[in-house]
Every structure is written in C-alpha cells, then in structure tokens.
Design a protein that fits this description.
14% strand; alpha+beta; two-stranded antiparallel sheet; Dna Ligase, domain 1; 5 strands; globular; three-stranded mixed β-sheet; 2 domains
C-alpha cells in the first residue's frame, strides 16, 4: 500500500507534538505501520519488515512505546496472547475502533462504527465522568469457522 504524504505528515506532526524527534529509524517504522494499517503487528513483525533497513531491535521496541505515548499507536492483546500487538490509531476519528476476535482461528476484524455513544452520554451524565476514549473487544466465532471451512490464521 502506498502512503499518502499528507497522511504521513499528520502522524509526524502528532509525534512532534509529544516532544519527540523524528529520526530516520522512527520514520521507517511509521511507514511500515502506515503501509499495513489493517494489521495488528507485534514488535517482532515490525523487526522482520525492517530487516533490510538495519534498524536494531532495541530501537524498534523503544519506538513502539514512544508511538504509544504519542497517541498514534495502541497496544492491544487478543485471544489471551502473552505478546502485545499494536494497532495504528486513525487520527481522523475521535475514538479508537473496536475488534471482533474469533475464538477458534484468532482472526481479528475491526468495527469502525462507534456504537457506544449512548453509553458514553449516560456514563458522563450519571457518573459525572468525562469519557475521552474507549476500547471494546468482542469474542466469538467468525463466519468461516461457523461453516467449518478452512482458512489461514491471522
């Protein structure tokens, strides 16, 4: 997937707003994330993607944490994994998207609609609690597993 320059610039701006510098290594990691927006990569997946760029493992780990702190990346765990996966934040929407996770094959599907607005309004009204974001993971069985068809795990 080709990266649009204006999209890259939005993420770079957000990183700089967190008082972090944009190094060539951080830019390469950001480009991997932008080219693969629908993936839920582990740090090891990013390292594999960058094997020809000669970017060290420690640099990738530190950068992933820095990107989380800057608000452009979210750490997520699916299917009771011990390993963290990362999801690029869509800077054009006010809330993070939700996930459907298949209990059988581990497939992860994203729900982009924000279906919790009424709940947020109620929480703010009843509990006097200002909601700034939310995350929702719904676990179940995907259509492919329900029909018994074979497919690769994601």
């Amino acid at each position: 997937m080709k990266i649009k320059q204006n999209e890259l610039n939005k993420y770079v701006k957000k990183i700089r707003e967190s008082s972090a510098k944009i190094t060539p290594q951080r830019l390469e990691i950001l480009k991997v994330l932008l080219r693969n927006k629908d993936e839920h990569y582990t740090t090891e997946d990013i390292i594999k993607q960058l094997k020809n760029k000669k970017i060290g493992q420690a640099t990738v780990y530190r950068t992933m944490e820095l990107f989380c702190q800057a608000g452009i990346l979210k750490k997520v765990n699916f299917k009771n994994e011990d390993i963290a996966r990362y999801d690029l934040v869509d800077l054009t929407v006010p809330h993070f998207h939700h996930h459907l996770v298949c209990n059988n094959c581990g497939r992860v599907m994203e729900i982009t609609e924000d279906l919790l607005e009424t709940l947020e309004e109620r929480i703010e009204s009843v509990y006097n609690f200002k909601v700034t974001d939310h995350e929702l993971v719904i676990k179940g069985v995907c259509a492919t597993c329900q029909t018994g068809e074979n497919h690769e795990q994601t």
